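User:
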Amino acid sequence: MTPSLGHVMLDVAGTELTDEDRELLVHPAVAGVILFSRNYADPEQLRALTAAIRAVRRPAPLIAVDQEGGRVQRFRDGFVRLPPAARFGALHAQDPAAGLEAARAVGWLMAAELRAAGVDFSFAPVLDVEQGVSRVIGDRAFATSADDVSALAAAWLDGVHAAGMAGCGKHFPGHGGVTADSHLELPEDTRSLAEIENADLAPFRRLIARGLEAVMPAHVIYSSIDPRPAGFSTFWLRDLLRSRLGFDGAIVSDDLDMAAAAFAGGFGTRALAALQAGCDMVLVCNNREGAVAALEAVADWQDPRAGARLERLRARPGAATVDGERRRLALAAVERLEQLAA
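Assistant: Predicted structure:
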């Protein structure tokens, strides 16, 4: 029987793999590695690191990063500084066609640069609708209307797909309607399901129809609907996302080390609860002890469908190039978007 990916994505210590990293990565419950700024010095070093991660085991772990742009861009020096998503919305308000083309071009550039460095995918796009209250979303959102977010994110995803990379929409069903930062506390959204459907779900519907490969649920309780955070809720993941929206891609938990995830107990319990609710892969970041506990807890978890969904997150074979006309257009788009902030 061919071995498959596990269900836990974790981090590694630095710019090179340590013996401890290697020992952990061969655990059969490992699905992938998420990289951070501490794992990056320059593009050449990053290519060596991603190659070393892939060489550790078969099937090779997935390699991911948060490379949205703006304040959430882990790799900077040696990469193009990407604008925050809200900049596309500002351009779109002035010139809709130019806003969409800029989103498409910069999505391609982000993906092409990462692919050239050996990274499979970025945890993007953010599909939250900015509603003027969130402390953690803000300019990470494309716009303040669901229709504009839908259009811009769809164009961005088209560019990412053109570069041979998968997309991961977050934070389902929408993080823009709460003030609290789920990294620090457990937010509660008291709106009705009808209100959330009208205000937040359109971008997810649009991108699922566009072939979105992964979705990350929010660590938010939507208390009028379910007492559990979305990432631990069978209603949100199985009933609404899978059944009603028809999503058959990978569901990837947000970081289980975030304060909001403590709702579910210890790390092993959190990992199992997320998988039981409908996640295909769980993230445990910047907590080695927590990652080990999660690996041990889900070591016997079996879900063949999850393995197939996760495999779709691999960058498509073939070397990505960041040269030529596409790069010129993308850099011109970045320059125009930067001018909006001047």
